[in-house]
Amino acid sequence: MRPVHRGPVPEAGGIPRTYAAYGDARDDLFARLGDYCSYCEMRCHEGPAVEHVQPKRGKSGHPELELIWDNFLLGCPFCNSTKGDRQVVLSDCYWPDQDNTFRAFKYELDRAPQAADALSPAQQATAEKTLQLTGLDREPTHPKLTRKDRRWFKRREAWGIALLAFHDLQKEPSEAMRRQIVNVAMGVGFWSVWMTVFAGDADMKRRFVMAFIGTALDCFDAEMNPVPRPGGRI
Ligand SMILES: [Zn+2]
Prior knowledge:
By secondary structure, the protein is mostly helical. The chain has helices at about 25-35, 75-85, 100-105, 120-135, 150-170, 175-190, 190-195, 200-210, and strands at about 10, 15, 50, 70-75, 105, 115.
């Protein structure tokens, strides 16, 4: 899960913006984070929706946070509806705008994202809760996977494209190829898949981090290895 930096409330004419409806924040969120789901990282061609970290409705809803910038991320229809109005205890999960979520999960070919190996048992529980909350653990063997939910399929597709790109770069290691691969990655989405496939190539990782707008730079060291996020829990 890509760690992101949402930044401060956007300004209009030097004045922090207020939103009459949460949907009005959509373009500002695209400008800061790109049109990718903040959880599954899928590129949403019609644009992901404004997602409330803490739900606005429901028994445990926070109506006072409905229009608050710091409570916004972007969500695809599947992450959005799986998370829905379920109660969110912030400390129970890792959050892409707070933590280095790239350290929390591992991505493997033909598998749903898993809790990363190096985590403590408590961190592992937090990572697993995050996957369950958003339904990122749903793959074809999962009892709750619906026919409509194509996240696993799109992620698998991204793996195929990223692996081909990796082989192409070995065959033709040129600056043009590197640039081309970044453009393809941005079109496909699933930033973590690209970061995983190119894990041994610091230059490509730097390019992915820089190209996917809003990626939290302070989550990486000079070699582009993930490091604990300042102020985060992982
Ligand atoms: Zn999603």
